[in-house]
Amino acid sequence: MSNPGKRVFGLAATGVYQPSLRSPWLAANDKKWEELSKILQDAPEMVTTSGSRRKLIIFTEHRDTLAYLMERIKGLLGRPDAVVTIHGGTNRDERRKIQEEFRNNPDVLILVATDAAGEGVNLQNANLMVNYDLPWNPNRLEQRFGRIHRIGQTEVCHLWNIVAVETREGAVFQKLLEKLEVERAALGGKVFDILGEAFDNISLKDLLIDAIRYGEQPEIKAKLDQVIDGALDTSHLKEIIRRNALVEQHMGLDELYAIKDEMEKAEARKLQPYFIRAFFTEAFKTLGGEMRNREAGRFEIRHVPAAIRERDRVIGETRTPVLKKYERVCFEKQHVRQQGKPMADLLHPGHPLVHAATDLVLEAHRSKLKQGAVLVDPNDDGIEPRVLFMIDHSVRESSGDSQTVASRRLQFVEIDQHGKAINAGWAPHLDLQPIDDYDQSLVQDVITAHWVANNLDALALNHASTHLVPEHYEEVKKRRERQVDKILAAVNERLVKEINHWSDRYIKLSEDVAAGKQPRVQPEMARRRVEE
Question: Which residue did the predictor score with more confidence, 116 or 402?
């Protein structure tokens, strides 16, 4: 996976305005909008080499500004369906739907959002972002850019910050952005990853208020520059990066072989992409869907039948809606991204589109599953017949009144004509082949044998419960215990550091008060924090 560097562009507007739908004067004379309009129309990064428009995210602070921008951008592009919005009033289900449309619908090009979309949202199919308004909290700058600059992003990410430089507030932001650009180059693009920590003990909000109130005083200007230079000092930032780096761990050969063995087992248990693609392609076609080949291993879905979308609405387990069309889909992770091409949505059994199609197919053909199938193993020269059972087993864990699946897998039990049950392995069904009608007539006596009609289901379940289930449970239990131990150690270490930090702050603040100073944080508050 590549993690390309970041480019930061500070753009200046000649005045400071707060756009409003209720103000026609601002709509005609908004300098910030003029700058954004130039970006949308003239910036070469807005289009691909083939001439198609790239997807873009625009962040603003206010709902009024969001509505204002949405209307102006729609008018500029001439395509109302090309712009979608997310704000604090957007409910969870609608937000998921909008995110899916922005990721996969080729007609949706621009997302205008407040900070409701700035955290916990993965929008890395885009690599362009504009901060129409800049927040007073550096953590939010970091969260915003993190929506597109994530692991797996293969494109260079471009960020434009629109700043009114002829204001005192704008002068502080301009200084901040210029320093960020210098440190971005020095640290290879990592400065945004630690921006919040760099300002951990510094209030950008207080700096901006001081700039607005006293910005004309030379000593205040010098102080502001000094604070920003100190927070974004190269050595300071490198120390934060070093502190956040993962601790190196060394494994012995035994551990490496154990991990390799587990990976091979997991690969054998996994439903291979080839089978998912073969099933979905046939099922989707049967249901009236249209899927066309595009790049190698990638497809375009121009039409999803209403029956599939309605079934998704009824079952609605994933809460991520099925769309009317998908610009690109694929069945293997390596095909999700291709240079210069739209990002593909990975189709898997849990994907809402596959899930809804599977549910419709099962509804139509569930009875056939109960009949079973007559198969032959081409690698087995023996003549003894066996019955193979697939058993779906889940290990669940409770959290309050709810339960979640900690691990789920298919178990395979094989029973011979003498009633002996054994573990059939991780994926024995993949080696079996259908038997033709002529060969099936030759083994009709085996198919109708009395032992096949015995209660083999109970025998298979009993064997699985006695042998396979305990192994599965112990495996999950050990993995969960290791995970909990790591979390507990990390939380303990973090809390000890926090206690020591606030203990030191309490001592320092107490000394300041004793010396006649009036610190912004009182010693008593620091002492309470230590106790908490």
Answer: 402
